[in-house]
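Researcher: Going back to the complex we discussed earlier. I've cleaned up the inputs and rechecked each line, so this should be the final set. Can you rerun the prediction on the complete assembly and write out the structure?
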Amino acid sequence: MIAVASGLSPSFVWPGSGGGSALSAGLSQFGNARMSVATNSAVTGGYQDGYLLLNRNHISIHHIGSTWTSMLGHANMIEHVPSVGFTAASQVSARWVTQSGSTAITGATGTASVTFPTSYSETAPPFVHMVSQPPNLPSLNSTYGIQLTSVTTVGFSAVFSALDGTAPGATIFWESDGTILL
Amino acid sequence: MSAISWTESIPSGTSLVGNAPTDFPRVWKAISSGMTLEHLWNASGGASDASTGELIQGASRTFQVSATQSMASNSQITGRLALITTDSRSSFVPYRLLTYDSNGTYLVGSVWLDEHADSPSTGYWVRQSGTISGITTGVTGSTVTFSIPFTTTPRVYFTQSSASWFVWLGAQNSTVFTSIHSDRAGAAGTLSIYWEALGPVSSASF
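Model: Rerun complete. Updated structure for the full complex:
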């Protein structure tokens, strides 16, 4: 029995008063969580459903699923420092969400309104940036200037103006970054 | 499972041989009972010699460390996880997940992770960025090839170094984009275009 308790002690702790005794029941030691460790090739399988895999080629954590393997975290991932939408109290219940899309504009001038596919839940508006793509590339005729006029948690509006007066229309590509409750 | 009866002195060196049929099962029951909170005996024999054991889901625990605590990596903890739960430097609790590898400690999870609302399916979302520099004259397209090809046409955004120029997005696909710039406003000097692209890439790019 001493040998058994000693052998398990790196991964298990016997917190009761008896050590490895009748008064003890085992608990997993802190740090006991250990992923499957492999290289790129294991990302496509090789471990059972529900396992965590550390890919040592690019330092990423993968979940081994029943139908495919998903990446859960990565050493090169972008961490969005808390600012808008996060408070010390709410940070555990919010997450940063990026949404992107495009909208067509027509006419020489006007206003484009976009509703986010998923509304942001914090009161502060998300960050939005845009770029326009004129249709008659590579000519610069009828390129547009665009400018945000309002941003809310549910969408944004932008005004546009054709720089040389002609109006073939264009596409505005946009991206928004904000917080949503879990 | 019967109540644990973990007595390390039984059997002892002086125990009667005749007590073996009683003592030996008691040993195995004691072990299985002691581990049953976090260990599963999933084979047909229950907690018997027909079983092999594995951790119950959720039983494994990460290290819990503070943000300022460093842990030297070594071969014994390679692949293990640590969860940062305290940080005296910030009013925010920086819940971050670290992994220890033999050559370093890496960030692999964060409560502040950006996630995209759209699923990348079997791939994953990637931002790529760069600079197109040295633009001095005219209306010219500059073509950039992404270092990692996207699986669909990404969103590409620009910031320009000079207000004397106009910059637009030209033709684009999953592997390249073209920026269009114009000095029609009477530009002087050199223009740099800082670009960023966001889109999904294949899991083969892991």
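Model: Worth noting: The first helix of chain A runs from residue 2 to 8.
Researcher: Good, that matches what I expected from the previous run.
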